[in-house]
Amino acid sequence: MLWRVVRACMWLGIPYIAGFAVGGRRYQTPAAGERLAGYYAWPRLGFDAPITPDDAQFFGHLPYHPEGLATVQQLSGLLDKEGGPAFWKMNGTHRDVGFEVAAGSKNVQILRKYLIDKGFLRP
C-alpha cells in the first residue's frame, strides 16, 4: 500500500510524506498491553529521521552497539550497519519520520529494496 501511496504522491507532485513512528523504549505502552512497533517498522520501509543527541548519549552507555555507530546521523545509516536493525529494535524509540518521494531518493530505494526482498516487487 505504501508503494502505491508513494507513486500517487509522485504523480500528484507531493514531494514529502511526514509521519510519527510510535513505540520503543520511552513510549508509554497502551492500557491493553500491546507493544507498538512503528519506531522499528517505518524506518525499515524507508522513512528516515535523525539520530538525536539524546539517542547518541543513551547509546554510548550500552555495552553492545554496531561498529561505527558514533558516526551515524540518520536511522537509515544505523539500519544499514551490521546488527543495526536488531540494535534499533531493542533500543530505539518514537520520533517524527519523513519520506522524500522523488524517484531516485534514498527513501524510495530503501522501500523498493524492502519490497523486492519480501517478494512484493520484481527486481
% residues in beta strands: 5-15%
Order of helices and strands: HEHHHHEH
Structural class, by secondary structure, is alpha+beta
Instruction: Give the overall pLDDT as a whole number.
Output: 92
Low-pLDDT parts are: none
User: Helicity, in percent?
Assistant: 40-55%
* Major sheet attributes: 2 strands, antiparallel
The N- and C-terminal alpha carbons lie at a distance of: 18 Å
Shape by Cα distribution: globular
Radius of gyration over all CA atoms, rounded: 15 Å
Helical stretch tally: 6
- Quick one: how many beta strands? 2
Question: Taking strands numbered 1, 2, ... along the chain, how are they ordered across the largest sheet?
Answer: 1-2
Summarize the structure.
The protein has six helices and two strands. By secondary structure, the chain is an alpha+beta fold.
Give a structural overview.
Helix content is 42%, strand content 14%. It is an alpha+beta fold and 123 residues long. The longest helix is centred in the last third of the chain and has 12 residues, at 106-117. It starts with a helix and ends in a 6-residue tail after the last helix.
